[in-house]
Design goal:
Length: 475
């Protein structure tokens, strides 16, 4: 492998080579079993004599850091202590601005899935038609000439057209291909909207409880983020301040409670936005999975004044790793959003965008949604039935007929009632990943659990909820 050795400074050359290779082994940059370049090759690259490098290698071998294999070369010794972590960076180094210092540290994702995975926002990867996706992606990657240049920031033209058709048919969203801007997930769509709409100090209203990552993003742009309570009909429009510049809502399946926003509340929000001159950001993140009832009209399709920016994502319907989403904004914001996309990242993964366009146009996406919806509907029903049977008097289900999670509130309904945090912690220790309302968003007077069913097999739901029941009984 290539390894950089600096010969700057004074002193014996072989000693400097020895120390740098030794340090690289100790801190893990050179791992056990890795092959080092031959002495002749490293000497040539460093413009020193071969003997200088050989002396350093011999010393490292004598100290137990390297081992020679006859006819195969020199390797890092396999029997070494675990690498030592590097020293923490100095606090006297460059510091971020006050906005970024105020944000909490990023949460570490747990890579190993628990035995009973009720985590929120994770789709079932086994439902994804991986072989079909590989075929489509391989077809696009063969056209290397088509991707040997920078593309327009709006995204792949075929995907923009496919998205416009899909949301037009499935959600009655009024948009053409030119109205669609492809992003790397919904989070980037929100970031672009912040860039073109907000200045430091502007007020942003969010649902309370609501999506924490959106709140943190708005705060990172210097906005004053204000929580607005949610009731059985959705966001309380009467609680909005006239100073509000932007309102972020999840009207189809409120996160995390799961209730849809009523039609009366939707029309009231649009009327308020027109009076206040505000923008409404509609995050329609998992409306595709609907198990009953006719879907309510999106805010975007009801909007007649150009006040709604419609945000969608394929992270829940396909896979989060694809990082594909979109925003459909009023025409007055189109040029600014394209500029922001170009300046912040130019464009995303074009082969993946082209493959997704074919996936949608060939009817494969609709087929996948129908299949996945049946599976998720069964899991939704199993959780609902078990909660109503086993947890009566302890948890009360929040009505929900869509999405990949449901919420249940503690029956006592007060801050002084049952503390669900230690119960959820005991369940997690026993193998059931249970998230509480305060885990996900905080700032809500009711205690409750939020149960995702995208990543747990249907036949494991009963056993997983039995773990929660046992943890509750031991409280």
């Amino acid at each position: 492998m290539d390894f950089h050795v600096s010969l700057a400074g004074r002193g014996d050359l072989s000693v400097r080579i020895y120390r740098q290779l030794r340090d690289a082994v100790l801190d893990g940059r050179l791992r056990a079993g890795e092959r080092l370049p031959p002495t002749r090759e490293l000497a040539r690259r460093l413009a020193v004599s071969r003997n200088t490098v050989a002396v350093a290698y011999d010393r490292l071998t004598a100290d137990g850091f390297l081992a020679g294999r006859v006819g195969a070369g020199t390797y890092v010794c396999a029997e070494l202590p675990a690498p030592k972590p590097r020293n923490a960076p100095s606090v006297r180094g460059p510091q971020p601005t006050a906005v970024w210092r105020a944000l909490p540290p990023p949460a570490a994702e747990v890579m190993a899935a628990p035995e009973f995975d009720f985590r929120v926002g994770i789709p079932d990867a086994t439902l994804f038609p991986l072989e079909t996706w590989r075929r489509l992606l391989a077809r696009e990657l063969r056209d290397t000439a088509g991707f040997a240049h920078y593309a327009e920031p709006g995204g792949h033209p075929g995907l923009r057209a496919a998205i416009a058709r899909h949301v037009g048919v499935s959600r009655s969203v009024r948009a053409g291909a030119d109205d669609v801007l492809v992003t790397q997930g919904a989070q980037q769509a929100l970031d672009l909207l912040c860039r073109v709409l907000l200045e430091p100090g502007d007020r942003v209203a969010v649902e309370e409880p609501g999506y924490r990552m959106a709140k943190l993003l708005f705060a990172s742009h210097g906005a004053e983020v204000v929580g607005v309570p949610v009731d059985g009909e959705g966001l309380d429009v009467a609680a909005l301040s006239a100073r509000t510049k932007l309102v972020y809502v999840t009207p189809s399946h409120q996160f995390p409670l799961g209730t849809p926003m009523s039609l009366a509340r939707r029309t009231a929000l649009l009327a308020w936005a027109e009076r206040a001159g505000a923008v409404v950001v509609e995050d329609d993140y998992d409306s595709e999975f609907r198990f009953s009832d006719r879907p309510l009209e999106p805010l975007q399709s009801l909007d007649r004044d150009g006040r709604v920016a419609y945000v969608g994502s394929f992270s829940k319907t396909l896979l989060p790793m694809l990082r594909l989403g979109f925003v459909i904004a009023p025409a007055s914001l189109r040029d600014a959003l394209h500029h922001a996309r170009q300046l912040s990242g130019w464009h995303g993964d074009l082969p993946a965008q082209a493959a997704l366009a074919r996936f949608v146009d060939e009817g494969l996406f609709a087929r996948h949604l129908r299949r996945a919806t049946k599976v998720y509907a069964d899991r939704h029903e199993r959780i609902t039935t078990t909660l109503e049977r086993v947890f009566t008097g302890r948890l009360s289900l929040v009505p929900s007929a869509a999405g990949l999670h449901l919420c249940a509130l503690a029956e006592d309904g007060t801050e002084d009632g049952t503390d669900l945090e230690p119960i959820a912690a005991r369940a997690r220790e026993a193998g059931a990943a249970i998230q509480t309302l305060s885990d996900l968003c905080g700032g809500f007077p009711r205690q409750g659990v939020v149960l995702g069913y995208g990543s747990i097999a249907s036949e494991s739901i009963g056993a997983g909820l039995a773990v929660l029941d046992a943890a509750w009984g031991s409280a």
